[in-house]
Amino acid sequence: MSDVRRGHCWYCRKPGDKVPCSRCKIGVYCSQNCLGRDKRRHSSECQSFGPQKCNFCQKQLENRLECSSCGEAYYCDRTCQKKDWKMHKADCKEVQEIIKDAGQMWSKIAEEFKYKETSKGQYIHYLPDFPFYFGNTMAADFLNLRQNEWQAPHRADDACLDRDYSVLSVGCGDIRSLVNTIAQLPNEFRGKLHVTMCDYDPFVMARNVLFLYMMVKYATKPDFSKTLASIWYSVLLSEHDYNLLHEALTDLCSRKSSLLDITKGLVEMNEEEVEVLSQVWSVWLGMECRCSRPDSIDLTNQRMERRSHYTISKKSHLKGSFTSKHVDSYREWDLYGILGSTDVLEKDLSCYNPTLTGRQGWDEDNDQFTLGEYNGSRPKDMEYVYCIHNCEPFDVWDFLEVEKYCDEKDSLPVMLHTYVSHMIDLAMAFIDKKRIAIQMTTTACQKLTHNRKFDRIFTSNLAEYMGVYTLVGMFGPLLDSSNRHSTLVMDTLSGLEVWEFMVCKMEYFLEEMNWTQMACSDEEEWKRDFVPHAWDYSYDSKWFLRYLKVLFLTSGFMEGSKVPSSKTVLQFGGLRMRDIRRELNTVVPYFYLKGPRKVASVNGRLRVMEWVLTENRLKENTSDA
After folding, report:
1. pLDDT tens-digit profile of 395-452?
2. b/e string for 258-275 if b means 16 or more Cβ within 10 A?
3. Which helix (H) or strand (E) is 623 found in, with range?
4. Residue 393's CB: how many other CB atoms inside 10 A?
5. Does the reported pTM lie above 0.85?
6. What is the pLDDT of residues 2-22, one digit of tens each?
7. Helix (H) or strand (E) holding 162
8. Measured between alpha carbons, how far is 601 from 468 in angstroms, rounded to an integer?
9. Neighbour tally for 368: CB within 10 Å
10. What are phi and psi of 471, to 5 degrees?
11. 438: which residues sit within 8 A by CB, 6+ positions away?
């Protein structure tokens, strides 16, 4: 379970790691009591982390020799492996055939969403979904210094405290991870931060630049963080908040100087790209947003229509996702779409929020996504509608942290509004120190050019459409090889669909459910404690490795249809992936547990790969120096 801070108990999450799991040695607890309470959940990951048995003689292995073809059988030595081949051969070939079939299926899907290059060398972007104004994964800490560069004994070193860091975020979405990263910087940090944010969606980037500009413009305005938190997430705004938004949009649309100048050195962007964003700002500025006007954009009704099919399924699992005291306040959010208190609804919230509108991505009549084409010049010509679909602000901020900070325990919208405002305050305080520079771009990632190396590179879930092999080749050389903690981070969000296609995952999952049901004292306990958080009980490293091979097949890594070996897909191009069967991620967890988070509907599909520099790559840098 890698979503617990180092040195903290894997069950209660409080400081204390003196009691390790006797089998895998990786899981740690503050007491025997916590170890016992976590035994049922930890068992599946312990099976992966701990010693394996020889597939032939069944002896427990200290050092694993795995089948090079499937990576799912382990042996004492070559002798045991040869003796077992007759028995293992059929299983091994079946796994490879399943991976091939899944690869062909996924290649067809991925092909639809790839960048298309024109004869002029320009890229046409196909936007099949609404703009992700809220995001659909937990806000990341790009650096997570305390678990990486700032591990003892280096934390106290002046060189460590003064070091500058560079981050590249491709397919960045909104600025939640940027804000979270700045807010999580240790107080002792004295260096500078350079962040490059790339997303080809002009609607998302228009909001990002707008928000950053407002953070600079209104840096000294009391309680501005609360205003920005409302603009970020709320359908309805107060007259005061809307006036600030309108003023900022007016500034951006009528600016006479560069974006770098008006943001006082914070944000830099190519002027041609800014002009495209200006089309979005102009449309927002021209909308009639006062609720009392008959020609207003009426986002309340648009939102209810958009959520009608979604909230039915959402409400059906409220009992499993939320504690009872939070259900009513969630329903307030569901009804009004207001982050904060609804007590002022009638009196003060008199304006609609235009920045929650954008291009349409969902065909209501056919219940499917429409495949929009964007060539970088037409946002002003598109139809603007309320465009938040299947995303909640509660899903992208870690509720464990929200609970720690907030005193209010009964209203979810108030708690999250308070927490997000706090994070914005911390980010604005750091921005005010002039120690951060942000490069924004809507350029296709294939066309990005850089004159710097990066300590962290985040690629969202591009691996599922461009292939892992392609991304490692594209971004691996950009990692700073003078920093052994440099990391390339890749998300995957479609693994479960491929697993279901391969059948194997579903069969395995049913076995896990049956085992867990037997471990529970009665059926009610099983329904209450296990079903809502089922993925917490299934550490799927074996199945993810299969999916990783599928992603290699879809990126043209090898000629023909030969399935790459486990060794091949885990290390190449001067990088190695942290082997999730044996070690923990250190920047972003492999996945987040749902059980401890009493509110957040953690995206159960998210799995995170971390690619780090090989020892040979690090040695090459040392010799070059």
Report:
1. 899 989 998 898 766 788 999 999 999 999 999 999 999 999 999 999 888 788 778 9
2. ebeebbeebbbbeeebbe
3. helix 615-624
4. 23
5. yes
6. 689 889 999 999 999 999 999
7. helix 158-162
8. 27
9. 10
10. -70, -40
11. 178, 194, 195, 196, 197, 212, 266, 267, 268
